[in-house]
Design a protein that fits this description.
Layout: E1 4-5, E2 10-11, E3 13-20, E4 23-29, E5 34-40, E6 47-54, E7 65-72, E8 75-82, E9 85-91, E10 112-118, E11 124-131, E12 135-141, E13 155-158, E14 172-180, E15 183-190, E16 199-205, E17 213-214, E18 231-237, E19 244-250, E20 261-270, E21 279-282, E22 290-291
Antiparallel strand pairs: 1-22, 2-20, 3-4, 4-5, 5-6, 7-8, 8-9, 10-11, 11-12, 12-13, 14-15, 15-16, 16-17, 18-19, 19-20, 20-21
């Protein structure tokens, strides 16, 4: 009998799952002094392995939010947020410790919610949020060593403009890039995270830095009668690479926001009946018992 799971799977916000050497590592906004990492073989049973990043080893003292990791050439690079600035910390293991040789920000300008993307040609891109009359998503290239960004070349990509994006504040945030059939799907969350209507949508482009076309069917994940605040997500795959998986957070309950909780649900691309770009679908938010998708 296959393992089963039921959301939420853990406490934590802004979740990111890394699949490395057959093991899943879950990172999130989950500790005031850094990030704790949870480990699983099956996306069902999780073990807390303690701090993977502690504030003593990096720039910043508080507000550790939304970590994401990429593995390159046998090393692990974490883009993290603290004090509303972006930084990069490095480790030889997904368990950490993630540290900085030089405790510096990527930019002296404020930015949050960093997301790495490595294209097929090896070029590394960074997507992130600036505070620019609201939360606006930007993108730019990164250096080959993953330690610096082309700040002069940054491009404004997405802003809150649609009705579903502006129900509480002017917020587009939590970017995450997925490449599918040669197209670039920039997924994101909209509204203040404290809104019951915090939700996920996406936009599509023919190139990694746009221009992006927002999907007319947005949002693709939004609250139901059992959960609120579905947003700030990332994607991973099953171990065989055949199944797409979305991890996201929800509010504690229908009446309380904190602590936010982490959920997992399957996702997939479906053919567009009108002949356009394939449609990204997230099969959630779920609260019932489901078969594990590892």
């Amino acid at each position: 009998m296959k393992n089963t799971y039921q959301n939420p799977i853990a406490q934590g916000a802004d979740p990111f799952i890394l699949l490395s050497c057959g093991t899943y590592y879950l990172y999130s906004t989950n500790d005031p002094d850094g990030y704790r990492v949870l480990v699983s073989d099956d996306l069902v049973h999780w073990t807390d392995r303690g701090y993977c990043l502690h504030k003593d080893n990096v720039q910043g003292e508080r507000w550790f939010w939304a970590p994401e990791i990429k593995e390159k050439s046998g090393r692990f690079y974490m883009i993290y947020t603290s004090e509303e600035h972006l930084g990069v910390a490095v480790s030889d293991s997904p368990l950490g410790p993630f540290t900085q040789e030089k405790k510096i920000w990527l930019s002296e300008r404020k930015g949050i919610d960093g997301d790495y993307f490595i294209d097929d040609d090896g070029q590394v891109y960074l997507y992130y949020v600036r505070f620019d009359h609201g939360n606006i998503i930007y993108g730019t290239k990164m250096s080959d060593d993953m330690l610096s960004m082309d700040e002069a070349g940054e491009v404004r990509l997405l802003a809150p403009e649609e009705e579903w994006e502006t129900r509480l504040g002017r917020v587009t945030e939590g970017p995450f890039m997925v490449k599918h059939n040669g197209k670039y799907y920039l997924t994101y969350s909209a509204n203040d995270y404290r809104s019951a209507d915090y939700a996920i949508g996406y936009a599509v482009s023919d190139s990694p830095l746009g221009p992006f076309r927002k999907y007319a069917g947005n949002p693709i994940l939004i609250r139901n009668d059992k959960v609120n605040g579905t947003g700030h997500h990332s994607f991973t795959t099953s171990k065989d690479g055949k199944n797409l998986i979305c991890v996201y957070h929800i509010h504690k309950s229908l009446t309380e926001v904190h602590p936010r909780m982490t959920c997992i649900d399957p996702a997939e691309f479906l053919p567009n009946p009108d002949g356009g770009d394939d449609i990204l679908v997230i099969r959630g938010p779920s609260t019932e018992m489901r078969e594990a998708i590892y």
